[in-house]
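Objective 1b: paired records.
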Amino acid sequence: MRRSLSTQPQDRELRNARQTPGVPPNIDGLRALAVLAVTLFHFNKQWLPGGFIAVDVFFVISGYRITGIIYGQGKGFSFGVFYGRRVRRILPAATFVIIVILLVGSFMMLPTDVKALSESAIGATLSAPNTCFWLYLNPGFFAASYDTVPLFHMWSLGVEEQFYMMWPALMIIAMKIGGKSLLVATSVTLAIASFGVSEYFLILDQSFADYMLPSRAGELLVGALLFLWQDSRQISSKAADAAALVGSILVVGALILLDQKNGFPGIHSVIPSVGAALLILAGTNQFSPVSKFFGDSVATYIGLRSFSLYLWHPRFLSLRLR
C-alpha cells in the first residue's frame, strides 16, 4: 500500500504533504479556488451565482485526503491518532471563531437573534451545527435571513466531522471482510444512495437535502472513490490533460451556470463533485497548464490558509441590527 500523510495545521507540514507521492500538488490551489468562490458568492450572489458549489469541492478534497490517510496506514491505523489530529486541526480555530462571534453578536444583535446564535454555537461545539440548523433554526441555504445567523457556515464542518466519525470504521470493516473490492463496492453504493437521497429530499425537505450527511456524503465519497481508483493506477499525461480540461469545464460551468433555481444539491451536485475529482486527478501531470495554475505560489499560499479563510469569511462578520 502507498504511504499517506495526515493533515497538519502548520504550513510547513502542509507543504511537505504536497510533495509526497500520491498527494497531487494542485490540491492547495483547488482549495484556494473554492474559498475564493464561496467568498465572492456571499459578498454578492450576482458576481458568481454558483459560488456555493465551493463547499462541494471542499467535500471532494476531504473525502480524497481522509480516505488516503486511512487506507495508507493499513493495519497501523489508529482511531485515537486519527481523531486526535482532526481535533487539533479543527477545534482550536473553530472554537476561537465561535467565541468571537458570540461576543460580537451579544453586543450587536437583538435578544431573539442572540438566542438563535447561541443555539447554533452549541450545535457547532457538539459537531452538529448542520443538525441544529435543520431541526431548529433553518435559515434556508439560499435565504436572505441567514445573514442573521453568523455561524451558518459551520454546517459544512458538521457534515465533514460526522463523516469522519463513520467513514474510518466502515472502511476498516469493509477491508477486513472483503478487501479493497468490497470497499469500492460499498463506496459506490453509498455514493449513489446519497445522491438519490439528496434528489428525493429536494422536494420532501429542502433543509435536510442542504445540511445533512445522508444527502451530502456522496460528494465526500466521490473523493474517496477517486483515491481508491487512482491508488492502483498510473495515468498518462494525455489522460491527465483530458481530466484537467473536462474538470475545468464542469467546475467553472457550475460556478457560472448553477443557481438556487436549478435545485441543489440533488443530482446537480454530481457536476462540481466529478469536476473537482477530475481536477485532483489532473494533478498527476504537474507540467500541464491547469496544474501549473493551481500549483502557483499565490494559489498555494491561499489554499494553505483556506480553512482559516473559510472560518473568517467576511459574510460572517456582517452582523445586522434587527
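Objective 1b, second protein:
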Amino acid sequence: MDAVLDALTANVLDGDDTAIAAFFTARDADPSIVAWSPPADDIGECELQFLMRFWHARRSPGGLLPPTAIDPLALRPALGFIMLLDVIDGGADFRYSLYGSLIAERTGFDWTGHTLSEMAARSFTGLFYAAVYRAVMRRGEPIYTKSWSPTHVAATGWSRLVLPVGRPGGAIERFLVGNVPGAWRPPR
C-alpha cells in the first residue's frame, strides 16, 4: 500500500489527472478532479468558496492559516461541512479532531478521533485522501478535489477544499477541510 500511496501522492503533486483517473477507474469509480490554489469563484460550492476566502483573508505572510484563526463563529457558513485533521509524525498519518455533522450523516460514520489510515484500510478513497494531504504538506498551498464515493456511502461524491494550518514560518500542523457531499443515493 505504501508504494501505491507514494505514487498517488506524486500524481496529486504533479496534477497528473490521467494517473489519478486510472486510480479511480481501476476501482470502478469515476475519475477525480484536482486543482491547486483555485480562485474562490472557480469553486462551485458556496461553503467551499467561503472557506477559500476565509483562508486568504486570515492566512499569515508565510501562507498558512494560523491555528488561532479557526473560530467556530467565524466559520458558521460552512459548519457541518468542516473537518479538522491533525498531522501525526510529520505526515505519516492524520487524525480527525473534528468530522462535520453533515459529513457524518452522509458517510454513516463519525470519524472524529480516528486516523486516516483507519479509513484507508476500509476504502480506496481514504488512500486518495492521504495522498492529497501529503501533497499539500509538500506544497503548502490549498487544493480542491472532487472525487467519487464507494457505493456503501450515501453521497455520490465529495467536493473537498484542503487548507493548510500552521504557525508563521513553521510546518503544517493541521488541515482545515471543507467537504461537501454530492447527490444523495441509497447506500448498497
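The chain has a mean pLDDT of 89. The two ends are 26 Å apart (CA to CA).
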